[in-house]
Amino acid sequence: MTYIRPLGGVLIAGLLAAGLAGCASDDETAATASSAGPSYAPATSIVRYKGTNEYSTAYGGERYPSLQHQGFQQVEQQPLSTFSVDVDTAAYSHIRRILKNRQMPPRDVVRIEEMVNYFDYDYPRPQDQDEPFAISTTVMPNPWNAETQLLHVGLQGYTVPRRQRPPVNLVFLIDVSGSMNGEDRLGLAKRSLKGLTKGLREDDRIAIVTFSSGSRTVLDPTSAKDKHRIEAAIDKLDAGGGTGGEKGLEHAYSVADHQFSSDAVNRVILISDGDFNVGASDPVAMRKLITKKRKSGVYLTVLTVGDGNVNDHIAQALAQAGNGTAAHLDSLTEARKVLGDEVTANLIPIAEDVKVQIEFNPDIVGAYRLIGYETRALNRRDFRNDRVDAGDVGSGHSVTALYEITLVPHLARARLGFRYQLASSDPDLKRAVEAQDEYAFVKLRYKAPGTRNSLQMGQPVSKFEEVELLEDAPDDVRFAVAVAAFGQILRGEVDTREFNYDDVLDLAQSGRSSDPFGRRGEFLQLVRQAEGLSEGAW
Question: Same domain for 430 and 480?
Fold first, then answer.
């Protein structure tokens, strides 16, 4: 089964048609999914929408993008690995929610890159917004396979000083349908928005649009200094009716257009349980609307709440199409993280359409496997194509990627094309010799916000980035490896071999380092919870 990332035109049309319709139609076919590793409850199924190449995994009443395991690629045949960056964190919150409900998360809930990127890392920081990323790399022994090594790539985004950040014009688009009734849904959404409002400046503006069977404006664009008026509008919200997501988005974008300012960050923040079951009569037009508004400078952030009927698949697709992020608020603590501690990172973009391409040196690396990023994979040619949409990065965000690599004996070769495939007649022999000390070359392309043409930066991964022992790697790197290992174990993948939950705990504890908000400590508790469930102790 081949999974196509959810950004293609036909796929999005099928996704919106099915996702916003809420329930399976006669055009769907389903098959029971079998998974290696822990047994999952309730049973999962794979749903394919006829006429598309789009697959969704159903977990009870919830849906998640289907993931296909990425095996090793031979450098001789495929020297380039290309993907869109991902700073979404929804998968980690879903995993935490499911584990706390004393169930093991189904395989396709576990998007490893979102688990790893959930945490903050102290990577070297860029000093100038004109070059908004710093790249750091480490090559180290692989704790779950002595025959391979790991390549860690860390990207650190520029942090916009608070006094220099532009004002924000926000439209809160709030689902008030009947399924949103409850303190863990609309109640949590209301408390979350109040918290966000308290952290805004007087030159920021807020409007509120609600949708259920219809949509309406409950608060016209209002200065954030008028907090009492904003909070009063939030307090009056109550739930009832169906979920007309399409009309709600159209209405919210109309309000965003009304208060649009080229000197501000303009963003719609959608909060819903994702149970879209009314509307979407023209999903192609809806996708065009999201794309058009994205190009005009209005971003879309998607936040989901609740459990039992979350459509994570549609939330991911909408956020990606709208140049925004997707997160799941499973608690007020998570809301504080997303809309409080990391509000600048989640509201203020520093780069759009960020793509990474790594070229491996075939004289040193024989094969590689990218851990995670299944829904973010790009074709080689997409890297330089500025029309291909990719991930967006906010102020101060970091992005982490991990590769498992196999090494080959050092052999000098003459090749044609690419950085490491120089023809023997190439006069740049010095560069050819120097390249023999490189594992790979990391390239990064991005657009400055509001621009059309990409900029590119890059740097080699040299043997100077290699550490002989895993304990010599930085704390943050070891912790990221532990999180990635945990994700693979949860997915029942064979790549981690005999590496188990206790090994994850030991490695994560060794890299726990500074933990001011207790998030790494909470991770250790989740590993223990998963271990108990897998052994039947719970």
Answer: no
The pairing of beta strand 205-211 with beta strand 326-329: unpaired
Q: Which residues in 307-335 are b (16+ Cβ under 10 Å) and which e?
A: bebbbbbbbbbbbbbbbbbbbbbbbbebb
Which of residues 318, 347, 376 is at a domain's end?
347
Question: How many degrees, rounded to 5, is the angle at CA 252 between CA 246 and CA 255?
Answer: 145
Judgement on whether residues 147 and 172 belong to the same structural domain of the protein: no
Cis peptide before 6 (omega within 30 of 0): no
SS (H, E, C) 33-68: CCCCCCCCCCCEEEEEECCCCCEEEEECCEEEECCC
Domain boundary residue among 419, 450, 471? 471
Whether pLDDT at 19 is above 70? no
What value does the mean pLDDT of the chain take? 85
Question: Average pLDDT for residues 430-442, to the nearest whole number?
Answer: 72
What are the φ/ψ torsions at residue 73 (nearest 5 degrees)? -105, 135
Ramachandran angles phi, psi of 383, nearest 5° = -60, -45
Average pLDDT over residues 58-68: 86
Structural Rg of the chain based on CA atoms = 23
One domain for residues 269 and 206: yes
Contacts of 236 (CB under 8 A, 6+ apart): 218
Q: For residues 427 and 384, is the Cβ–Cβ distance under 8 A?
A: no
Report the side by side order of strands in the sheet with 326-329.
215-223, 205-211, 168-175, 265-272, 298-305, 326-329
d(CA 175, CA 313): 17
Domain count of the fold of the chain: 3
* Beta strands, E only, 176-285: 205-211, 215-223, 265-272
Which residues constitute the domain of residue 280? Answer: 166-347
Say if residues 293 and 251 touch (Cβ distance below 8 Å): no
What residues have CB less than 8 Å from 360, skipping those under 6 apart?
75, 79, 80, 81, 368, 405, 420, 439, 440
Q: Minimum mean pLDDT among 137-141, 167-171, 430-434: which range? A: 430-434
At 318 the pLDDT is 83
In this prediction, residue 228 carries a pLDDT of 96
Q: What is the pTM of this model?
A: 0.87
Q: Rounded distance, CA 85 to CA 172, Å? A: 26
Query: What is the C-alpha to C-alpha distance for residues 49 and 384, in angstroms, rounded to an integer?
Result: 31
Strand pairing report for 349-360 and 80-84: antiparallel
Q: What is the predicted pLDDT for the residue at 27?
A: 33
Asked if 384 and 359 sit in the same domain, the reply is yes
183 part of a folded domain: yes
Q: What is the number of alpha carbons within 13 Å of residue 371 lying toward its C-beta? A: 33
**Please, are residues 277 and 312 in contact by the beta-carbon 8 Å criterion?**
no
- Distance, in Å, from the CA atom of 424 to the CA atom of 415, rounded to the nearest integer, reads 7
Find all residues with CB under 8 Å of 177, minimum gap 6, and list them: 211, 212, 213, 239, 240, 241, 242, 243, 275
Q: Between 430 and 305, name the one with better pLDDT.
A: 305
